Amino acid sequence: MPAIPVFTHEAVLGAISPMEAIDRVRDGFVAYAGGEWDMPPKTYLEVPPNGDFRAMPARGAGLAILKWVTSFPRNPEAGLPVVMGMICVSSSSTGEPLALVDVRSVTALRTGAVAAVAAQELAREDARTVGIVGCGLHGAWAARCLAAAEYGPGVCFDPDPEAAGRLAGELGWEAGGREEALECDVVTCVTPGSSPVVDEPDPRSGLHLNMLGADGPGKAEATPAAVARCSLFCDEWEQASHGGELTGAVSAGLVRREQVRELGAVLTGAAPGRTDADEITLFDSTGLAIQDLALCVALLEAHRAGRVRAATVSL
Amino acid sequence: MPAIPVFTHEAVLGAISPMEAIDRVRDGFVAYAGGEWDMPPKTYLEVPPNGDFRAMPARGAGLAILKWVTSFPRNPEAGLPVVMGMICVSSSSTGEPLALVDVRSVTALRTGAVAAVAAQELAREDARTVGIVGCGLHGAWAARCLAAAEYGPGVCFDPDPEAAGRLAGELGWEAGGREEALECDVVTCVTPGSSPVVDEPDPRSGLHLNMLGADGPGKAEATPAAVARCSLFCDEWEQASHGGELTGAVSAGLVRREQVRELGAVLTGAAPGRTDADEITLFDSTGLAIQDLALCVALLEAHRAGRVRAATVSL
Fold this sequence. Notes:
The structure is a homodimer. Chain A is of the alpha/beta class. Chain A is 35% helix and 23% strand. Chain A has helices at residues 9-15, 18-33, 103-122, 137-148, 161-171, 178-182, 224-228, 237-243, 247-251, 263-268, 289-304; strands at 4-7, 43-47, 51-60, 63-71, 85-91, 97-102, 130-133, 154-157, 174-175, 186-189, 208-211, 231-234, 260-262, 281-284, 311-313. Chain A is globular, with a radius of gyration of 19 Å.
């Protein structure tokens, strides 16, 4: 087999700016909503009590990718990342492997990028300030992408004050409390989802909420009552209603399918976005393989154009 | 991320002999049947008209693997293999990637190995001669594994006489016609599954049939009537009844679930194998990720023991 390029963490982050990630992820949602791209459901391989592996395939733009990634929440206790694995990129026309890609950088960048896409689409026109609740790896990338989309300044909150301070320092924002973060125009929650950080009285009129932390069964960042107060959007209904932020409210009978709009449908104009400045919009991001695919498309283009270097591997 | 070894085609075939592959694949079926190993269903990503990609996860023996592999039947017309992709091997305890493995060699070896395991378990005690119907890559490896398990001599049939002659020459067997191959004790069919090679009058008393070619919807190597005459075994009921050799007979109402036994259950003694010397036994192999996992376990052991060399890759 011919040698294929291997894109490291540094190569991915060097090749794709937050601004480009936002545009690419937006394009991916549009292509998927329009039926040009295909995405079978994620498969979970449970490894109790460590967590799970996910196999996430998607196809589009001449590529077929398979993301193989862990969610091992206890790993940081052992000094290891929660997210580990790789992305295999193949040609969808010949089936040939084309590249191997670091999974952490792509996951962080595409997760951050969708927060910016959702804000651009669903937040009020005059929304500017950003609240970040949870300043880990994905919270930081959400903040960077929102800043690239010209949101800010922001308030960064984390139970670990050092993490909040570091992110605030990088972006020229402020560190603050949860309540201060929730007073901003665009609030992005990226917590482990083990206990709610948004309760019923919290979301105020006109707010846009990105909920990025709940990406599996049993996880939630807002109470079902708080969710039910909002106009609801998600990346994909099946995932959001079964292993996302909406799951609790759906199970409790507070939310029905027809109340929830998918981001892709909003982007293509098939469904309305925000309709009122006082509305509280909530976007539930569970994380889709089409987002990873969108960045792999960008990466291979950058490589063909000589804008990114890569070692190669032969199988 | 630490560098991980990359096992090429040559490394895999150099590290694992057909005899070891047979033992490992047998052990894998036993571990899966006993509940020690786990295997979520395959996911298919269709790419009409080229074929499909398959994402095949499995977990066991401290590893979690994900096989990402094509079945692109028209690829040989363009000088490319039907089967392309890679196997990602991770630690199931930490989630860390441990290795990257060539997919063609593992697929060929584990597909060949299961033919020998099924023959050892289901063919008559006095079975010796082997008929090979289809002498492509997987047919050749089935023949090599059957030879390693001390079956033979055999008759090799292929519409391409050169392919049949080459395999026969390698093993010291004969090339012959389809009917001659079907007169042997252990008949292994490995065709594209586009038209039946075993019809109702063919299978004779006492025969064991391995059906390896039908691995997706619409494929079959035997007519439903021929299948219904046999005592039926499969690698996994869900796959065999929905995208395997049994599918046609099940759809036609000729075969019910309770008539079909899984190989793992036979190996553990939970279900009977052949009960009569005159019985015609048919094993439907659709191909399972636990077979790939079994060989990855062997490969990593060989690497740790210094019996196989590998380049490394860093993500």
